[in-house]
């Protein structure tokens, strides 16, 4: 990151796995049924992240009053550069391949 | 007990550095320094309660508490309110939109340089050193 210690090349702890994804596109699952897909520019130990070219997907479930059917709706929006506060992050992964 | 004083000649206003050593150390070791470098810029902060606040960043502290002014606050229903001054607790922040014209690396580097300048000034002037000097 940006401290004075030299960064190591070995993977020693889970945060190092995120380091491997720097400058790559990643998938971030967040609390409140949100997902982000963007390019990881920076992160810290709290999982605060800077993502570029981000697409945020918010998924909501509507329940039909009569049939009790669950209708899943997702809303997307694009943001050029986003700072994400780490306490909302649930998981970080390479982007999911659409099957 | 902190005996360190902020040097008089450091500019005040959007470029000032926080006075507390503890806050400087916390900020220096996390991405909050980038947000601190956004002082003076107009940004949008998305809050955890699904509302958004767009305004000029006055100050961001190490805990991500943000003060904005000239704010357009949009609540979760979409209702707009104009606020002269808004203080957002760090825990309530979900996202901060970074303006397009911001160079992230330069901003972080200049913030860290500012922190280190204050620290070095204090030790050079005979004040208390924050860390023992390393002997290699």
From TrEMBL, chain A:
In terms of PROSITE patterns, this protein maps to: SM
UniProt GO molecular function: RNA binding
Q: Which CDD domains match?
A: LSm3
Q: Which InterPro entries match?
A: Lsm3, LSM_dom_sf, Sm, Sm-like_LSM3, Sm_dom_euk/arc
Q: Which GO terms describe its cellular component?
A: Lsm2-8 complex; spliceosomal complex; U4/U6 x U5 tri-snRNP complex; U6 snRNP
Stretches assigned to the Sm domain = 13-98
**Alphabetical UniProt keywords:** mRNA processing, mRNA splicing, Nucleus, Ribonucleoprotein, RNA-binding, Spliceosome
Assembly with partners or alone? LSm subunits form a heteromer with a doughnut shape. Component of the precatalytic spliceosome (spliceosome B complex). Component of the U4/U6-U5 tri-snRNP complex, a building block of the precatalytic spliceosome (spliceosome B complex). The U4/U6-U5 tri-snRNP complex is composed of the U4, U6 and U5 snRNAs and at least PRPF3, PRPF4, PRPF6, PRPF8, PRPF31, SNRNP200, TXNL4A, SNRNP40, SNRPB, SNRPD1, SNRPD2, SNRPD3, SNRPE, SNRPF, SNRPG, DDX23, CD2BP2, PPIH, SNU13, EFTUD2, SART1 and USP39, plus LSM2, LSM3, LSM4, LSM5, LSM6, LSM7 and LSM8.
Family to which the UniProt record says this protein belongs: Belongs to the snRNP Sm proteins family.
Known role: Binds specifically to the 3'-terminal U-tract of U6 snRNA.
- What is this protein's name? U6 snRNA-associated Sm-like protein LSm3
Species for this entry: Dicentrarchus labrax
